[in-house]
């Protein structure tokens, strides 16, 4: 689960991380009072969407020459003008794609005198089985270019889980970021705080870009992007309450109600599969034969007829879907349950696109019989290769 920047900063501040004062607003009428509550005279007006690259983004309604989604303002009047221009418009960044995202809230933050911009993130390094700090002296909006062109400038510091961030670990991070004086002292305090926040709140990603050294020598978290492990949210009702469903795909929200693993993609062939590995293989073979999947959908090993029906409805609700491939290898999952769910869903919502079904495994004959006797226009397939070729051909 992702949260907004201002929410991420609230979480980090609760652990003792240094962040600027700021106020989140959802209406331009709130901009003046928000700005007056801050020290000033420099303010930053930040679009709050679940996507990176906001500073270099463009508002679609304002044309290609519009200012970005993060704007410096040197007066309260400029804060208000920027807020009126940004709220309600669609911000397009590299991460949103061409469709962009509507800006429904802004974060008005006190400005900072920046001496240096650094990059810092924490993530699970699966290669070593540890949480690791990933840091660079080359912070700012072009960190992706740094990673591609000068990867030696990005340093990885894994943390032993039984020890946490030791003084030696913190010193290594300080050295990698070339911190001295007061900034180094701040780093020795800050890095254990960030690790504590990451582990105690079950984060899957904590990215601070930039982490800044101000002209007075102090460190400050200038931006923050945080993602949480969805499987651990039951332990954190305070974090779960931060969820902003307006930033999520409606189909993914519906899928979460039925514990379905669903991710919307940009292709035109809807997929319903059991098992993540088989789902990935199904998407790969669709690409092999010249088409693209419209989604990743894993109904799991213990799916009921109700869950399968819901899954089918979610797929058909996507206007980009021009064909559907159901690929089930029944172990724990029974083929007859899948077949009953498909038939129930088709009878409820109708079938307006080609449907190819491949069933194999537990109760496969019962499943095939249910489909054959349904009277529905369903194409059967013998194996995955056959199924992929048939749906690609049917979509054309």
How can the largest sheet be summarized?
6 strands, antiparallel
The residue-averaged pLDDT reads: 91
In whole angstroms, how far apart are the ends? 36 Å
Structurally, the number of domains stands at 3
User: What class would the helix/strand composition place it in?
Assistant: alpha+beta
**Principal-axes shape call:** elongated
User: In DSSP terms, counting alpha (H) and pi (I) runs of 4 or more, how many helices?
Assistant: 13
CATH topology of the largest domain: Rossmann fold
Low-confidence stretches: none
Strand count: 19
CATH superfamily of the largest domain: Succinyl-CoA synthetase domains
| Residue share in helix | 25-40%
Strand content: 25-35%
Over all CA atoms, what is the radius of gyration?
A: 25 Å
- Which architecture of the largest domain per CATH? 3-Layer(aba) Sandwich
Pathway: Carbohydrate metabolism; tricarboxylic acid cycle; succinate from succinyl-CoA (ligase route): step 1/1
Cofactor: Mg(2+)
Protein name: Succinate--CoA ligase [ADP-forming] subunit beta
EC number: 6.2.1.5
Overview of this structure, please?
The two termini are about 35 Å apart. The longest helix has 20 residues, at about 180-200. The protein is built from 13 helices and 19 strands. Helix 5 (about 165-175) crosses helix 6 and helix 10 crosses helix 11 (about 335-350). The protein has helices at about 5-15, 30-35, 75-85, 145-150, 165-175, 180-200, 235-240, 250-255, 275-290, 305-315, 335-350, 365-370, 385-395; strands spanning about 20-25, 45, 60, 70-75, 90, 100, 105-110, 115-125, 130-135, 155-160, 205-215, 220, 225-230, 260-265, 270-275, 295-300, 325-330, 355-360, 380. The strands form 5 sheets. Strands 8, 9, 10, 11, 12 and 13 form a 6-stranded antiparallel sheet that branches. The protein has 3 domains: about 20-110, Dna Ligase, domain 1 (2-Layer Sandwich), CATH 3.30.1490.20; about 115-240, 2-Layer Sandwich (D-amino Acid Aminotransferase, Chain A, domain 1), CATH 3.30.470.20; about 250-395, Rossmann fold (3-Layer(aba) Sandwich), CATH 3.40.50.261. It has about 400 residues and is of the alpha+beta class. The model has no long low-confidence stretch (mean pLDDT about 90). Strand 11 (about 205-215) and strand 12 (about 220) form a beta hairpin. GO terms for molecular function: succinate-CoA ligase (ADP-forming) activity.
